[in-house]
Each structure stands twice: as structure tokens, then as C-alpha cells.
Amino acid sequence: MSLLSIQDLKAGYGLIEVLHGISLEVHEGEIVAVIGANGAGKTTMLMTVSGCVPVRSGSIHFNGASITKQATCKLVQMGIAHAPEGRKIFPRLTVLENLQMGAFTRKDNQITSDLQKMYQYFPILEERKHQLGGTLSGGQQQMLAIARALMSRPKLLILDEPSLGLAPMIVKQILEVIRELNKTGMNGEVGKGMSVLLVEQNAHHALEISHRGYVMESGRITLSGPSQDLLKDKRVQEAYLGFE
Ligand code: ATP
Q1: How many independent structural domains does the chain possess?
Q2: Among 40, 42, 95, 96, which residue has the fewest nearby CB atoms (within 10 Å)?
Q3: How far is the CA of 47 from the centre of ligand 1 (A)?
């Protein structure tokens, strides 16, 4: 079943149209990757799904309901969480306060146990829980941005460039957490995994971890399919995987 469905989406900034009619689906339980060069419009698409950039035409549905004009805070309540490009954690709040902010729409009593889960995924966050977010390293801030998004217990986790500028060991750790969440969700139940929409410039990472992928060029989807097929596609290999 389709969890996120984007149809013929157009959006942009001021006089500039960046997305010229994007269609994309994320099914329940999938990791979907969007790859593309700098400036292709990947971040703009994610920001449009999250309600931060207005839709000019086309539609976005989540879990069967239209979210084309939905406010961001409502989207969080509906089950969409976005870890934005460049981390954008709250630098003057502590790690713990950042994580608590991620749960601000929740009214259940599992917030404390979810905090413990975040510390299991990313033990360094527990060690640094009383430290200000802005004093963390880039990799630690990325972990915090993902963990903060997870604290809303999303059905769909949106990740923008989670590997950007990070050391290979940290990237590996983050990818493993994403894989685990996709398999079993936050309750550790097989078959109840979280769906993920992932934007990455590192096409290797993105296609290796995802089930399906889309290639975006200048605001248009030019290719899509199972990630294993895209990894073998000559055009993808030449343009994004560094093959000669
Ligand atoms: P990157 O990987 O560099 O973030 P991207 O594929 O995510 O690339 P976008 O960040 O969505 O691409 O940018 C698409 C286009 O929109 C670019 O030409 C960019 O300059 C422009 N753009 C992005 N944000 C804004 C903004 N706030 N105001 C005006 N133009 C913008």
C-alpha cells in the first residue's frame, strides 16, 4: 500500500520553479532513495512534502489523506518526521532537550522508554545528553537530528543527506540504524518496520540501503526502479557511481 504518494508536483521559490512535475511513491515498509546532482531539487521536494515550501500544483497524499496544504506540525502528528539537510538541531538546547522537542506532539507515556531506545541506537548521545547540541561534532549532530525525528515515532522518516561530510564509521553506524528501523521499527517487531524516504548525493550508500530509487535531474524524475537495477544501470553508473 502506498504510504506517500506525490503526483505531478510543482514547487519553487519566488519566480523560480524548481520542481517541474515530480511523481513518486513510498510504499509501506520501503526505503526509497532519491539521488541526483547538486541543485537538482531533492531538498526542495522534501521541504515541499514537509509543508515548508508551498505546493504550486499537483498533489501529495499520506496514508490515503491529502496533505497538499497541510501545516508542518500537523504532518508530525500524522506520522511524518524530517531530519533536514545540515542537521538543524537546536544548538542552544541540550541533547536531551533536543530529543524531548522531537516528542512535543506526543501525549502517550512511552517517551522515556523511547529516549532509552535513542541512547541504544546512538550511545554517544547518552554520554553527551547534558551537553549543548551546538557543541557536538558533525556526526553527533547528525545522529541527534535523526534521533530527534524518531522521537515523534513517525510512520515515515524523511532523511536529507544523512551521510554528508561524515567519517565512514559514522556513516556505517547511521545506515545500520536506518536498516534496523526499516526492518523492525522502534518496537523491534519484525514486519512493523518504518518507511524511509532518503535523499543522498552518495548514490552508492543510497542505492545499497534502499529498495527502490529515483533519479532527479533539474527538477524532473528521469529514471526510477528497484535500487539493485539502478546500481547496474549504465547511465546511473556513469553519472552517479563514478564509473568511466
Ligand atoms: P543539494 O544537494 O545541493 O541540496 P538539491 O538537489 O537538494 O541539491 P535544492 O537544494 O532543492 O537541490 O535546490 C534546487 C534549486 O533551488 C537550486 O537551484 C537552488 O539554488 C534553489 N533553491 C534552494 N533553496 C532556495 C531558496 N530558499 N530560495 C531560492 N532558491 C532556492
Answers
A1: 1
A2: 96
A3: 10
Distance from C-alpha of 223 to C-alpha of 202, rounded to nearest angstrom: 17
Distance 173 CA to ligand 1 centre (A): 28
| Residue-by-residue DSSP string for 91-147 | TTSBHHHHHHHHTTT--SS-HHHHHHHHHHH-HHHHHTTTSBGGGS-HHHHHHHHHH
Give CA–CA dist 211/92, Å, rounded: 37
CATH number of the domain within which 223 lies = 3.40.50.300
Binding pocket residue ranges, ligand 1, CB within 6 Å: 13, 16, 18, 36, 38-44, 85, 201
Amino acid at 52: C
Q: What is the pLDDT of residues 23-61, one digit of tens each?
A: 999 999 999 999 998 899 999 999 999 999 999 999 999
Q: Of all atoms in ligand 1, which is nearest to the CA of residue 161? A: 2
Please tell me whether residue 83 adopts helix, strand or coil conformation: strand
The whole domain housing 150 covers 2-240
pLDDT in tens, 169-210: 888 888 998 999 999 888 777 777 899 999 988 899 999 999
